[in-house]
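Appendix B: complex inputs.
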Amino acid sequence: MLAMMEALAAIKAFVASGGPILYWIAALAFAMWTLIFERLWFYKGSLGKIKAQTVDLWEARGERKSWNSRQIRKALISRAASKINQNLDLLGTMVTLCPLLGLLGTVTGMIEVFNVLAVTGGGDAKSMASGVSRATIPTMAGMVAALSGVFGTTLINRIAERENHMLEDQLTMDH
Amino acid sequence: MKMNLKKAIVAVAAAGAIALSGSVMAQDKAASLDELLQMVKNSQIAENKENRQREAQFRKQRANQANMLAQAEATKKAEEDRSARLEQQHKEREQDVQAARQQLDDRLGSLKELFGHLTSTAGDLRSALDSSIISVQYPARTEFISELIEKMNSETKLPSIDEIERLWYELQRETVEGGKIVKFNAVVSDPAGNKAEREVVRIGNYNLLSDGKYLTYDVKSGSLNELPRQPGDHMKGAAAIQQATSGFTKVGVDPTGPAGGTLLSALINSPSIVERWHQGKLVGYIITGVGVFAILLALFRFVVLSAMGAKVSRQLKSNTASEDNPLGRVLKVAEENKGADTETMELKLEEATLKELPRIESGLNLLKIISMVAPLLGLLGTVTGMIVTFQAITIYGAGDPKAMAGGISGALVTTVLGLCVAIPTVLLHTFLNGKAKRIVHVLEEESAGLIAEKSESK
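Resulting structure:
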């Protein structure tokens, strides 16, 4: 309990020095990782059922060589693929947005620095320090979030690609 | 050469003028040339006579002049004697003054040191009272102090006990009043420039409030002004303290108070969000316009694509092809070409799908372009802002950070605006693109399968 409170206080201090942009970055990183885990959960769980259903539907067909069968196979694969590839684009976008948000924090922090400069005339370096930390910490946070996201999304993309291929391979045509 | 020419022209012109005037005179008096000749001769004779007379007069005067010179020299001598005498007298008097001063110093003794302290204290107090907001309540306190200082600096006057005690009284009053919250009436001018007598609350020598507004005290003119922009919610309570009679009331206090509330006005001078937005200037407005357009476009496409997606999924479930959705239209094409062979069918389907694509994907590319252009526009604003800043440096020099800081923060505002437009636009584009892709997917890859399934189930 005490350790948790200490951790909470540390986070609060971090956010206080980094500015409100950190909340946005945190929210984005949280949404990103939620989506990554949702995908992993899906690949480990319900994807198997969907694949089995698709294969069963295909195997239940009487013939698998006509034009009709080819179109139906394509539709089956497409339906499964749309489930496998769900949210992948969104994940990619989120990864690119993290550094952009960091940059936003940098610029707003710099504005704060120059505001202090305009009010105090630059005589007080200490009063500018808060603006500088508000400029640098979000950049770092954005970078960290983006890097962590790159690992997650690369993993998810590779799994999705492999699953798509495997499904296609399983639905065999007769010759 | 040129000069000579000029002179020649002037000479000719002068000669011409003389000749002209001569002829005019001749016409006035002489009737014929002979008469004119006679007249010239007569006047020559007259002039000769006149000149001789003048010469005689000059000779007479020369004797007179010598007389006058002798007289002037005598006067000069007398004045020089008088000057020497007066100088001697001045020297003697100065010695007397010196002696008197010496006597004064001797008699003053340790009092002299006291006056020194009094002078410096009075000087400090005068500058403190000048800038103190308590002077609003008790004006004209400094005149007496100025008089006192003048008296102590002069060598002929001494301050009286009363005056010294008054200095002490003013010091004490400033201290006591600095610890009080009082109400009094004073003339206050509002931001529009209207002056009116109002009830003013003074908090020590920190703040002046009136009618729930914070005031500033202009030391130079001695006038009270309402702050043109009042501080935000966290500094409220100015009205509450004016109505309060006892107990505690929250109110904002400017710790730099004695200097006239500089912190409060500095805080208020830092621009609001709207002012910051205006700092972005033309580029900022363009970015905002582009952003608003992008959001409206995204909203419109969201409505269209949602409706389309709902209709497509309804179509996937029903057996009859309806004209109100892309999938239905593609299926209709298939129904119309039921008898055709598979290759023709495939071509027809492809054609129908291609026809639907622009309607599904319209606007999405524009959104993507906006999401990429917005940060670039922000960068453009930054660079133009920096150009302005460097122009300011070349004009005013780098010595004044305030002159530069304004331009720089203006430059950064456009970057912020660019990012603020780009981030949601990227998200919206991805979201809408996903929606559109799903529909296109159904059209491209599932429509043929649907037709095949239908033909099989019959």
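The interface with chain B takes residues 67-69, 71-79, 82, 87, 89-90, 92-93, 96-97, 100-101, 103-104, 107-108, 110-111, 114-115, 117-119, 121-122 of chain A (CB under 8 Å).
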